[in-house]
Structures are given as C-alpha cells and as structure tokens.
Design brief:
Elements (H helix, E strand, L loop, with lengths): L13 E5 L5 E5 L2 E8 L2 H17 L30 H32 L1
Length: 120
C-alpha cells in the first residue's frame, strides 16, 4: 500500500460557536484539539488558520486505500456436508415425494374452488 500524492489544497469544515462571554470558538471538525478563540468570527478563523497551518507544516496528510476483508458466505460452511452420507439420496427422494404430495393436495384444493366458482 502506498500513500497517494499530497493534495495541493486542503479544505476543512469548521464549527463556529458563540461563547457565553461573547467570544467565538472555531474548531476544525474531526480535529477537536485544533481550536482557536477570538473576539469575532473572523478573528477566530484567522487564528485557527494560523494554528492549522503551523500544525500541518510539521505533519503530513496522506490517503491510503484498503480492500475490505471478503467475508465468507454464511452458508458455505455447510456446503457438501452430506456428500458422503449414505442416507442423503433417500432423504432427497422423501423430500421430492412429499413435495409432489403437497402439490397434488393444492391442485385438488384449487380444482374444488374453481368448481365452486363455476357452480355459482
């Protein structure tokens, strides 16, 4: 993983809060320890700009890209678990027979409903 190139200009969102004493507090969002206070909004922003510029002169901001871990499908651990079970084919045959039985019952039920509707 290599960091991407340093951008030529950075943009930061700043929270401006009016204090009870009439002063203005400016805080860089995401960097709560990077704050400045001033008598006006402009003064607080100017002071914050200077502090942030000084801080960044001694630091570096880089971006890295990572691949999120690929999670295994939750059912994959059960795949093939019955491949060597001698009763597996019999169980599948029973399931198919029961499914055909249910389908036949539903077909008969719908046939009766249709017959009742036609009789009306």
């Amino acid at each position: 993983m290599t960091p991407s190139k340093k951008p030529s200009e950075l943009t930061y969102d700043v929270l401006i809060e009016n204090q009870e004493d009439g002063k203005v507090l400016a805080t860089v969002i995401g960097l709560p320890d990077c704050q400045a206070i001033g008598a006006t909004k402009e003064e607080a922003l100017t002071s914050l700009y200077e502090r942030l510029t000084e801080r960044l002169a001694k630091a570096e901001i880089v971006s890295i890209k990572i691949e999120p871990p690929k999670a295994e499908h939750p059912w994959m651990k059960f795949a093939g678990m019955f491949k060597d079970d001698p009763q597996f084919d019999d169980m599948l045959a029973d399931i198919e027979a029961y499914r055909r039985e249910l389908d036949a019952e539903m077909e008969e039920y719908y046939r009766k409903l249709d017959a009742e509707d036609e009789a009306k």
